Amino acid sequence: ETPEERLTQRIVDGDRQGIEQDLDEAMQKHPPLDIINNFLLDGMKVVGELFGSGKMQLPFVLQSAETMKTAVAYLEPFMEKQEGQEKGTIVLATVKGDVHDIGKNLVDIILTNNGYRVVNLGIKQPVTAIIEAAQKEKADAVGMSGLLVKSTVIMRENLEEMTRLGLDVPVFLGGAALTRKYVEEDCVRAYASGRVAYARDAFDGLDLMARVVN
Ligand code: B1M
């Protein structure tokens, strides 16, 4: 077994004891972000499939998520960082009713490492909190994340509320239950400024942010 295979298996098994050693070994061959995107997220994909088909119970999914978080936290200091002035501010949140935050936190890490200021509000954020933060922080963009199907509806409702309050800050939407079509049709229609974009992954989020501030 290679360290790469062991890392994938550790996510599936929720086995974080001694994971640092495997991460160190893997880092001799791959940059930290590649380790996350390839081997760790591969494991999470398996977890999602097992859970979705009823072959894995929730407490074990939680162990996998914790293992993922431990690994990402260990790798984070080894990532390349862009120094210098902050290029712009984004307010990030997982929407109301949704606790999934691994994807959102990856977006945070990647944007932060690329010189943006990220105000990460956390999980289960009502739209009022998101709007307040966007105004207070003078955000250049707002990023909403959510993995549940019902979160896709909440995102659209949030945009309607933002329209009612006259906001026109660009909004990025991400999360596994979204589709590009839903974002570009239903969500764009819900937001008067029309400035809504779909982010398939964290790098998409980075591209969108770069387009907004430059
Ligand atoms: Co939950 N869960 N979960 N879960 N969970 C899913 C989402 C699910 C698809 C699993 C399944 O059934 N196959 C399913 C949703 C089904 C649906 O809505 N139709 C589900 C369910 C049902 C639930 C509960 C309801 C289970 C229950 O209680 N019975 C419950 C919900 C609680 C709640 O939110 N109120 C629940 C709970 C949990 C845990 C707490 C155990 C744990 C989360 C821990 C945590 O996040 N702290 C968990 C996990 C781990 C998952 C799966 C297995 C993995 C999610 C993950 O972290 N993926 C997930 C299965 C799946 O997604 N297929 C599942 C890795 C992560 C990096 O990917 O977040 O998609 P992701 O982020 C990607 C992109 O989407 C994008 O970039 C990231 C990197 O590429 N992205 C953005 C995301 N946000 C972005 C924002 C951006 C830009 C890009 O800019 C703003």
TrEMBL record:
The gene is metH. Belongs to the vitamin-B12 dependent methionine synthase family. It comes from the Bacteria. Methylcob(III)alamin binds at G97, D98, V99, H100, D101, S145, A202. Residues 1-87 form the B12-binding N-terminal domain. Catalyzes the transfer of a methyl group from methyl-cobalamin to homocysteine, yielding enzyme-bound cob(I)alamin and methionine. Subsequently, remethylates the cofactor using methyltetrahydrofolate. It comes from Zavarzinia compransoris. Modular enzyme with four functionally distinct domains. The isolated Hcy-binding domain catalyzes methyl transfer from free methylcobalamin to homocysteine. The Hcy-binding domain in association with the pterin-binding domain catalyzes the methylation of cob(I)alamin by methyltetrahydrofolate and the methylation of homocysteine. The B12-binding domain binds the cofactor. The AdoMet activation domain binds S-adenosyl-L-methionine. Under aerobic conditions cob(I)alamin can be converted to inactive cob(II)alamin. Residues 87-214 form the B12-binding domain. This is Methionine synthase. The lineage of its organism: Bacteria, Pseudomonadati, Pseudomonadota, Alphaproteobacteria, Rhodospirillales.
